[in-house]
């Protein structure tokens, strides 16, 4: 518990990004800053920025980068982020990456590394193909080791496969992600330290690889 890091976590759908983010937050005692969570929080609190974002969500247009960056600034400076932070879901575009760079410069903070969770699409397809959601209680189960007739272990409800988890949809989502974020990856490689981790391995192995790679960014 000596390290303190500031990182951006980048990972394709099915890379286990959310799981690893939670584990890293715990391991280093840093703030987990997720764009989706920030937007939901600001809208629920009906802040000025939240109301701006809500208008865009209602109209189905993208929340402007400036609004997201403003929300992010207060998170990066919050007491929870004193020991460091982990950005999750941001930046997604080159413009956002550049916006983040100038935000950090403005508040005198420095990114330690961009962390890229690399996946083999076929392994993700395999991983997600056993995932089912309960129609009644919405809990997620993996049926990999269950009989085909298995029902929800919590409530006995029917288990359904989410359309997002269908193999052809998973392959498509990964391809779209890679296409959209290629420029962001290139930007990070050109401007920051980048830690590449093979996220096709087990959760524990990936966490251990991340810990080994990140422990050297130790600042008091
Ligand atoms: Zn259930």
Strand order of the largest sheet: 2-3-1-4-8
N→C terminal distance: 11 Å
Distinct ligand kinds: zinc ion
Approximately how much helix is present in the residues?
40-55%
Q: Mind explaining what this structure looks like?
A:
The strands form two sheets. This protein has a five-stranded parallel beta sheet with strand order 2-3-1-4-8, with helices on both faces. It has a three-stranded antiparallel beta sheet with strand order 6-5-7. The protein has 220 residues and is an alpha/beta fold. Helix content is 48%, strand content 16%. Helix 1 packs across helix 8 and helix 4 packs parallel to helix 5. The longest helix is centred in the C-terminal third of the chain and has 25 residues. It starts with 5 loop residues before the first strand and ends in a 6-residue tail after the last helix. Bound molecules: zinc ion. The site of zinc ion has 8 residues, from loops.
Features:
alpha/beta, single chain, 220 residues, binds zinc ion, five-stranded parallel β-sheet, 8 strands
